[in-house]
Design a protein that fits this description.
With 206 residues, the chain is an alpha+beta fold. The protein is built from seven helices and seven strands, in the order αααααββαβββββα. The protein has helices spanning 2-13, 21-35, 42-47, 54-73, 80-84, 121-133, 185-197, and strands spanning 89-96, 114-116, 135-137, 147-153, 158-166, 169-174, 180-182. The radius of gyration is 23 Å and the shape is elongated.
Length: 206
């Protein structure tokens, strides 16, 4: 029973690894399906008659823990960006930044230097268009980033972006990624215009 308890604790600790809610739900569903007792063939059970009760439960936890660990250790083919951009946006929070190595310090309460667009459907629609219409690019801005953007989706998931203003065109990447995307020029100008209208001016890179 001690081993079973330790396996359970180790399994639960894996959930502390940062990951989007969507990815955790998907992994949990697969784990439950893999560990379902009914999926263990009768022939296998007869070959090991001594495997029953706590031993079988401990084995199920071990298999689930290994699978769960592999889900976190091996990157998904689908990035967080690819998954989350399909969800409806609940809020967009922006804050000025001049560093690639820091991010919005507060993701819950709005600080004085942060701007929320939860009540601005036009801005949320433009950001959604930016996520869908932007294309991957090999260009890496040499300048410092201009803004952090925290996008909250309905359901609780979030997307953390670093944004650059390069000649009035938005370049961005996920806060934890090195892959850059380039937004359409016309859409970039519209986003800049909206931000300035709200009283905030984007800093040009350089």
């Amino acid at each position: 029973m001690k081993e079973l308890f330790e396996d359970t604790i180790s399994f639960e600790k894996l959930d502390d690894i940062p990951r989007s809610k969507m990815q955790k739900d998907r992994s949990f569903k697969k784990i439950m399906e893999a560990a379902e007792p009914g999926r263990l063939g009768k022939k296998q059970v007869r070959q090991f008659p001594w495997v029953k009760g706590p031993l079988l439960t401990a084995a199920a936890f071990f298999v689930a823990a290994v699978y769960f660990y592999s889900q976190f250790s091996i990157p998904d083919q689908d990035s967080t960006f690819a998954e989350l951009k399909e969800l409806p946006i609940a809020d967009v929070i922006t804050a000025e930044t001049d560093s690639e190595y820091s991010y919005i310090t507060n993701g819950v309460n709005i600080e004085l230097n942060e701007s929320s667009y939860a009540e601005n459907p036009f801005m949320k629609a433009m950001i959604r268009s930016m996520l869908h219409e932007s294309a991957p690019t090999n260009y890496t801005p040499a300048e410092k980033p201009s803004y952090d953007a925290l996008i909250r989706f309905k359901g609780g998931d979030t997307l953390q972006l670093k944004l650059w203003n390069v000649n009035e065109v938005i370049y961005f990447r996920e806060e934890s990624s090195k892959e850059f995307f380039k937004a359409p020029e016309k859409l970039s100008r519209s986003i800049f215009k909206t931000l300035k209208k709200e009283g905030f001016s984007w800093k040009k890179a350089g």
